[in-house]
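Consider the following assembly input.
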Amino acid sequence: MSSTKTSPEQHQSNPVLSVASVSVEYATKEGSVKALRHVSFDIQPGEVFGLAGESGSGKSTLARAILRALDDNGSQTSGSIQYKGEDLQNLSPNALRSLRGSDIAFVPQEPAKALNPSIEVGEQIAETIREHQNLSESEVQSQTIEMLRQVNISDPDYCAESYPHELSGGMKQRVAFAIGLSCNPDLLILDEPTTGLDVTTEGKVLQMIDDLIEEFETSILFVTHNLGVLAEKADRVGILYAGEIMEIGATKDVFTNPSNPYTQGLLAAVPDIDRDVEIEAIPGEVPDLSAAPTGCVFADRCEFATEECHEGSIDLETVTPGHETRCRRLETVQSDPIQAELRDARTNYSGSKILEVTNLKKYYGQSSFVDRLFGSESPVKAVDGVSFDIHESETLGIVGESGCGKSTLARTLLQLLEPTAGEIRFRGESIDMIGSRTLPQLAASQSKMADFRKEVQVVFQDPESSLNPSNTVYETLERPLELFTDLTQEERENRIEEIIQQVDLGITYLDRHPHELSGGEKQRVAIARAFAGNPSLVILDEPVSALDVSVQASIINLLRELREEYGTSYLLISHNLGVINEICERVAVMYLGEFVEMGTTEEIFQPPYHPYTRALLTNIPTTEMDTADRRVYLEGDVPSARDPPVGCSFHSRCPQKIGDICECERPELEQAADSDTHTVACHLDEKEMMVPLAEDIEESDR
Amino acid sequence: MSNTKQYIVKRFVYLLATMFAVSVVIFGLANALPGNVARTILGSYATEDKVNALEAQLGLNDPLYVQYLDWLHGVLTLNLGNSIKYGQPITELVIPKLLNSLQLAGVTMVIVVTIGIALGVVSAVKHNGRVDSVISTFVYAGVSIPEFVTGLLLILLLGGPVFSVFPASGYVSPFESVVGWGTHMFLPALTLSIVLMTHVVRQTRSEMVEALNSEYADAARLKGLSRQKVIIKHALRNSLLPTITVIALNFGYLMGGLVVVEELFAYPGIGRLVVGAIRNRDLPLIQAAVLVIAFTYTFGNFLADILYTRLNPQIDYS
């Protein structure tokens, strides 16, 4: 993969893009927001320049400033952006139009939204070609098909006639790349091109980017928050924070010798399956940019900051040739860098079982009368017979890609959805509304349900939509106390003040409404609400995936502290194995409604592996600068849960498939050789599952 | 059978079910009305014997469900008997009037759709500008004033007293004179359009504003496409879907509006027929006319659903 990584010194002469001292401001009701301040960098021909930053860093603003497509209230207030020596600000609207899509192309973040839902994707590629190249219609069409082939779409003719909703997420992203590359641009701007994709899909898209770089020799501006992706793909990186470049240099230099406290903090905050460390959060928040900050923008959150950091303007300093950092305390920062600390060994919980789930099933798709009249389709088997238990104070992680049924599982456990079959026992008692036929039975199960609701709480992925926007934080936290406890008004008040401080928010937050909180603060409130009534089990459904890396780390640490304080058990649902690795004692890997592997976290992260677990593990981009591509690529997309493959549900994509037995016989979870707590559902023998990650197993079809 | 076909068949089954329910309601309501049909026909001086005899002849002494089934049979065979007031077969009365009304409705819909969508698009492109506020103001005024006031104002302005440009009443068949047809159609159609336009303009505007701010419109601009292409090809197409629903709903409102407007412009349509029938307690005629109006409305919505499937590839018909 790194064959394309050339040293930047090779072509210093004529940069494709030259960004010099660019500032951008947005006019808002509260005054002007200085989103970018004097940002400078060059991109050389054929170079991949990575721009990393968290939300609010201004990275998207920069991408849009280059395309001269800032929102109406934004304007470039200083500096120049030159494309091949020509200042983009001087271009006429027509010249700009012919440049866009043709010389400078853009691949948007969410292809699901950026592709027009009611136009066939072929036409969406063709219209770009038609606009910029003087070709006959048949040439346009054949070039469209050729582009789809270039981005590894196996049936380009069929794909061209599809509408976006008929394609999977990965296919849509490929189409977006085909549009971007259709006129062979000299500069391609990628805005978070793999964010929102599943890890195995992300792996394939990243691999495709490699191929395209070689094929098209395009320069790339790669904008992302994902440092692991940049570590793999970029030749040089710039770390953007609050509108300023904090550190810039060759990827290898920046990642192996991070010389800015912010970069160091970011790297220490990324959960990584290769390091057994406790991630560390960056304290504080991105500063308000309506006032131009004096001194270092990061000083307020920096543990190295002294008074001089708050004064004057700070210039980039050279660390090594080509590697610069914006820091006055470079020596201290380098001699005593921020690093994540080694994690304590995981506890093995074997106390009483708090939750026992046996053969739980949830099928969707009960058909209506008229549907049955016309013959209905088979139901979607979202959860298809899973069994597990959670011990007191233990955290069980459930990992899987989108569509594997993990969120349905959470909702069914919470009794938000009625299970189709199976049993859920909470502290030994069965939670079962379906079996209640008589009124006294119903009343009994209802009171049991009330207890269950008190004891089992939930934190959802998106605090934006799980907090009632018209309630203050106080009202939000008071509700569970009213419902689940007999506390008096005064006791409730005390409890609310206690819990809000436990989630590291001050009591001043109690009068605020959700819109006055940042994403991380909202999630803290959601966590406080879950913990207010002192539950014994909290279900965490992707609790950090909507948050920035540094905030994510602080939430994970908070969850860890609360668990110690209250002895609560967690069921943590996540697609992010790094997050799972941080906090879980045991892990279950889910695929198409079934568990394919289950064991302690160590057992899951070490061989023997289920082939699917192996694929998940190898596809995670990591910030470690190892160069070997160890990815296991999965063929195709996740099959529909309406019609899952017969036999092993993973056989249609399995790179280690052994033959007929995989297609005919459904493997059961069986004890693996290494431990009696480790189970794997696979027909492979122990030896084949033992192949270490870095070694190539059968090269699969791309 | 493809999913789309299956969907259309399914919709059609729903259409029939709806019509059945509507027929029951109409029949029930008509029978709940006070007054005796036989006495209405014979007049207040008829003897009790004669009334009883006619009741027997009309089947009014049968149980209600038998009466209903008789009536339903009549509906399905297009043999609804005679109007009490006019003595003519009801089918002969209703069908020409219905055709007249459909012409008025059709012309109205054409005006509403073309001008409404155009104004909506212009508002959205210039959104929050001066043109937008002017359009909004007029459009709101249109919906705030009831049809009979708008109609009267139009008659006063264009139908005589001020400018005598258009005839204020009556109907001319297009086979006699196309110009006459158009001029007679103009004022009632305009009156109805002004009221109905609002929803279409507002809906198109808000959908267009959203579409123009969408990421796909943004992506289209960043491909280097021209402004017109972004507006027409990328934004408008997606904005039309909800507008079609609004238009279909408007169609129901239109059928109601016809009653007022036809009365006002002395337009010989089904609305006017219903008003006359109610005035005369012409029960069989009321039933038939209301059923026809209900059917037209339901069928209009059925057509809208089908059109929707043509335009929106995303609907999952299964």
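The mean pLDDT of chain B is 84. Ask yourself how this observation constrains the way the partners meet.
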